Amino acid sequence: MTLRDTAVVGLDSKRRPTFFLQRNDRLLNRHNVSSILGWRANVNFKPVMSEESAAQYVAKYATKAEKQAPAFSELLSDVAKAQDSGSTAVCLP
């Protein structure tokens, strides 16, 4: 991501209108303080600037594969094994 001192509206690499937020750190997600405080979780959003962008977002979101969390019984078993071995940490897959 490109670092910038101010937010601007410009064209992306495919010549589509895009809103580029102020960004002063390559490792930090774009964020809005009010939304993070209200939602109390990480959020990553940007305004939709065209019908094509909206369609691409919906298609990407609808086809996104979610990583399945381990079953609770499996997690509990791993915790018990870690306790038996005297370890203070449990590694999750």
What can be said about this structure in brief?
Helix content is 35%, strand content 9%. It is mainly alpha-helical and 93 residues long.
β-sheet strand percentage: 5-15%
Total strand segments = 2
Mean pLDDT: 76
Largest sheet: 2 strands, antiparallel
The H-and-E topology, N to C, reads as EEHHH
Low-confidence stretches: none
What structural category do the secondary elements indicate?
mainly alpha
The strand order across the widest sheet is 1-2
Based on CA atoms alone, the radius of gyration comes out at 20 Å
Amount of helix: 25-40%
Distance between the termini: 29 Å
Number of helical runs? 3
How would you describe this protein?
The chain is mainly alpha-helical. The protein has a domain at 1-50. It has helices spanning 33-39, 51-62, 72-85; strands at residues 8-11, 17-20. It has a two-stranded antiparallel ribbon with strand order 1-2. Strand 1 (8-11) and strand 2 form a beta hairpin. The longest helix has 14 residues, at 72-85.
